[in-house]
Amino acid sequence: MKTIHVNASRQYDVCIRRGSLARCGGDIRAVNGGTAAALVTDRTVDGLYGQTVEQSLQAAGYRTVKFIIEPGEQSKNGENFLKLLNFLAENQLTRSDLVVALGGGVVGDLAGFAAASYLRGVALVQLPTTLLAMVDSSVGGKTAIDLPAGKNLAGAFYQPSLVLCDPDALDSLPEEIFSDGCAEVIKYGMIADGDLLTALKTPLRRQAEAVIARCVEIKRDVVAQDEFDTGMRQLLNFGHTIGHGVELCSGYTISHGKAVAMGMAAVTVAAERSELCPDGLYWELHDLLVQYGLPTQLPYGAQQLLQAAYRDKKRSGDEIHLVVPALRGRCVIRNLTMEEFAVLLQLCDR
Ligand code: GLY
Asked: Percent helix, strand, coil in the chain (nearest 5)?
């Protein structure tokens, strides 16, 4: 087992251990009081692990209730958010009870925002079952729902009391969804750890526990310095500015991981051409993305992506904070005017 302690406005552990879903009740009981646990999950994950987790929670003395959503980003909406709050109230959860999010990023974000809002905050436990949720969305306290005007437009910073990652859950992930998580893992190598880039040349599935732990450590260090995303936490957005543009232009038919992969490749080409990072970094990134079944080519032109960037919620006035590689395993945040960003987008075109 690997345990990473997160030091944020609430302190908590992220535990990475094979088989942890089946024994989650005892681990949850060790850090939470309460008598009731509201399990939030999606229909697919419920079929795989719902019963196991419920039984473990009950064995630890919790009365359990279960709220099931349809899988997919479209479920992360205001209607489900209100339904979930009403469900918690109808089932008489009190302030000492807890919400347990079992699933990927959609479940974690929705359940997390509900936990932050219900009775002005009840305890939240994250049981991530996708690679992306294990290395990114379950850690660091960002919770949100989508609004008709865009993704993640309403939410809260709300840290969990415990995160339990069970690498065995990766065995049931469709390859496409696993690849999406690999994009975020490669991102951590690019922003903070050249040794992780080297390690990833060996298939991730053979070293899942160690890789997840390294990514969580990097995220922990970033969150400890900038929990509320006012500065260096933006490093975690490497590849995301252009990636969000790709997602938007595609009407969200291109997945987040694939869009981030394209965004990372594009920014790295532009950085190399501008002599902002060492020669050869792009091809190393390219080869890793290909190894993990991820795309490297932008499907849209500079003009379309620029229009999308104007709609990005992270734009501030005429400036965009772009994360750019500086060295192997190190990125920096550059504040670019939209004109400078337009020039950079031209350089992405290979
Ligand atoms: N997923 C980016 C962050 O947590 O800041």
From this structure: 50, 20, 25
